[in-house]
Amino acid sequence: MKQYDHPLAQDLQLSCLLYALSDPFRLEVVCKLAACQPQPCAPLQDGRPKSSVSHHFSVLRKAGIIRTEVVGVTHMNSLREQELESRFPGVLAAILAVARAGDVPA
Amino acid sequence: MKQYDHPLAQDLQLSCLLYALSDPFRLEVVCKLAACQPQPCAPLQDGRPKSSVSHHFSVLRKAGIIRTEVVGVTHMNSLREQELESRFPGVLAAILAVARAGDVPA
DNA sequence: CCGTTAGTTCGACTATAGTCGAACTAACGG
DNA sequence: CCGTTAGTTCGACTATAGTCGAACTAACGG
Questions:
Q1: Could you tell me if A69 and A75 are in contact, meaning their C-beta atoms sit under 8 angstroms apart?
Q2: For residues B93 and A35, what is the distance between their CA atoms, to the nearest angstrom?
Q3: Largest CB tally within 10 Å, which of A29, A61, A89, B24?
Q4: Are A90 and A104 in contact (CB under 8 A)?
Q5: pLDDT tens per residue, chain A (106 residues)?
Q6: What is the DSSP string of B52-89?
């Protein structure tokens, strides 16, 4: 399998970023990635079928939020933090801070 | 017409806020409001039919981003900046800063 | 009162996003 | 090679969001 295409930081759209993060599952994935990078998709599935998970990762990838690298048989995901920070200063950081704070486990 | 109901700051959801701002028209409305508050809906219509505009204002209202007060025959909208800042510190400010920077008129 | 202004609500339509099973693909491991 | 692991792609379905015209509503202004 070839490596993935990732959009250039300069081509990213704020609307797409916000949209991608407005889904609770995707936001959670991003939070978990922020806590532990890089990570394959599997541990983040949270009980969903692989095809759904794959869809969400693809949305995050197209929004420029994550980078996926094929390493052997696993696909390692990481956040494009520096690029996002230079393109959208403060945005991801503020969102992650709030999302983490809301993560109080019941 | 009665005044509107606005959700309490503590009940707001980050996902809803991000979702509301992920629509380019709504983001633009929020930017314009940030520049000039309070403002009625009419000057922000941007050529769309009233029913569409009303829908978008309602989404922003339900997400807790704007407050609408009925003043005579007009409905004055303003951002709930302080409340959003205390509920979601830094989020709106960062998004607005980026959105404004991208507002380079052609 | 009656017209006007400002915006909402309703309903029908369209488009898009998410969901998931099934078939597929790519690379590793023995 | 052949099975396994990890994830993608496809296609069908469902649900939700946005769009807009038409009818409505609330308050003002004369």
A1: yes
A2: 24
A3: A29
A4: no
A5: 478 889 988 899 999 999 999 999 999 999 999 998 889 988 888 889 999 999 999 999 999 999 999 988 899 999 999 999 999 999 999 999 999 987 655 4
A6: HHHHHHHHHHHTTSEEEEEETTEEEEEE-HHHHHHHST
CB-based contact A80:A32 (threshold 8 Å)? no
CA distance A26 to B51: 31
DSSP B32: H
Residue B18 neighbours by CB under 8 Å, 6+ apart = A18, A19, A21, A22, A27, A95
Which tokens in the block code for residue B63? 């997400």
- Strands B74-79 and A66-71, sheet pairing: unpaired
Q: Where are the beta strands (DSSP E) in A1-106?
A: 39-40, 66-71, 74-79
Report CB contact under 8 Å: B94, A90.
yes
State both tokens at B31: 């930017």
Which of A75, A13, A85 is closest to A50 using CA atoms?
A75
- The single-letter code of the amino acid at B98 is V
A76 reaches B (C-beta below 8 A): no
